[in-house]
Amino acid sequence: MTLLQVQGLTKSFGARRVLRDVSFSVGEGEIVGLVGTNGAGKSTLGDVLAGITAADGGTMTLMGHPYAPLSVEDARHLGVGVVQQLVRIDPGLTVAQAVFRGTAQAGRPQAELRPQAQVLLAEVALDVDPDTLIGDLPHFVHGLVETARVLAEDTRLVVLDEVSAALLPLEVSRLHAVTGRLSRQGRGVLYISHRLPEMLEVVDRVLVLREGRIALDSASADLDPVRLAAETVGAPVTLPPPRVASVAPPAPQGSPAGDDAPQELVPARATARPLPAQDEVALQVRNLRVPGRVEGVDLLLHRGEVIGLTGHRSSGVAEIADALTGELPAVTDELLLHGEPRSLGPADDRGLRLPAYHPDEDAYGVDPGETIARTLTQEAWGALTDIRKEIASLRGVIRTVHRLDVKTLSISTVFGALSGGDQHKLALARWMASAHDVVVLHEPTRGLDVRARMQVRQLLDEATAHGTSVVVVSVDPDELAECCDRVGIVSGGRVARWIDTRELAVDAVRDRIVEAATAA
Ligand SMILES: Nc1ncnc2c1ncn2[C@@H]1O[C@H](COP(=O)(O)OP(=O)(O)OP(=O)(O)O)[C@@H](O)[C@H]1O
């Protein structure tokens, strides 16, 4: 029986027509995938279902009754719960309070909330104490706390907006078990994700949102990840070729193109004849230890190389990254940066603090109310005294926006109004433009569509061709396979195994990573 019926939905933000004519249905017990490029309108559709924003036109029915929620509370009361993509929960709440906030139970004593919260947390396979403060939890579990929250009421339709984006394959399997349980209870699930291979494992049907319309509505059994990726972007898609490590000789100081050249945030493609990356070691770490967490880790990173690190939450992978960025005290037997001895731990002149990028909105260091132009250039328009420099800067911004395919009508759009993926792409490009030497990137393609992932891969290829060396820390096997030359599987505080990704097809590497990470 049909649970949700959506007919001719439209929604615009100013001149930007996001949803033009969206029609689809979700049946009772059905798990329906929703995919689309960054900025395609998936979250906007979720927001309309959640009562966060109203559609401009079209109709919806829920269990045969007209459905037009006026608020989030109204939507939940009517039976629709949405777990938003960039959910922010008050860090001062306990997990139990977070699960019941906005419900009839809110405000009851913690002791009364605790047992019920435990039941709901078990239902979403989240093993945390209901007394834990939200601020003490890693951000990736907030989506699961929110999933427990939508179950606290008799929700008929659950919308999961990229809840799996920051989860390990094992955690994604658990989320899928939860999704399956919801389906068996007769609830409908709308599952939004860019991680297509995993999505196809759980959904019954897939909707592709393209140019404001449902461009494809197909049984998942009739799709594979490559075909679905092509349907998503509306053009044939080939997986990126294996990385070929190569690096140009150091560039001469100064800008060869002169100060007036458009300063695109993406480094220009390397034209110099590539040299083998193995010629020069950028970072060498021998016997890295973080007491009680990491033991005996050796790392060798060549100039222009990208190595990946992955592992379970308690494997020590996060601690290795934090030791390299100086956030966690650690010791080594030897630490060389370009052959120069360095130390870890308290920052001093010789202390190593590798710069790190995190794909979390809070960590972008970007004011969401600032325009794209200002965000990318840090300049106040009109305050510049040289018109040629101003024009060159604006041209650079426009090129970056165009090249990264950011869905916006103007560079004066505020950063916070961009889709989650478009925000991430621009923040990463901005960060990479000033990233030199050896850097740590946490999940550089999280929440990005298939085309944007390739753009990030290109960003990496170009940065490494200029000599940058990168450590990618990730939960996503596709990301590791696409971006890295070698991937270390961390287990029990050690790198248990290295997988060489070069010269292998990306999907073959992905399978090896999943296999090794699951076995570790
Ligand atoms: N409040 C708003 N004001 C102006 N524009 C908005 C607003 N909310 C969304 N948009 C625009 O609507 C479009 C669709 O955004 P939406 O977040 O729905 O995309 P999405 O498909 O979820 O993308 P992603 O995969 O990157 O999360 C984007 O171009 C975005 O800039």
Automatic annotation (TrEMBL):
It comes from the Bacteria. Keywords: ATP-binding, Nucleotide-binding, Repeat, Transport. It holds the Pfam family ABC_tran. GO terms for molecular function: ATP binding; ATP hydrolysis activity. Residues 4-236, 275-517 form the ABC transporter domain. Residues 240-263 are annotated as: Disordered. Residues 240-253 have a biased composition (Pro residues). This is Ribose transport system ATP-binding protein. It comes from Geodermatophilus obscurus.
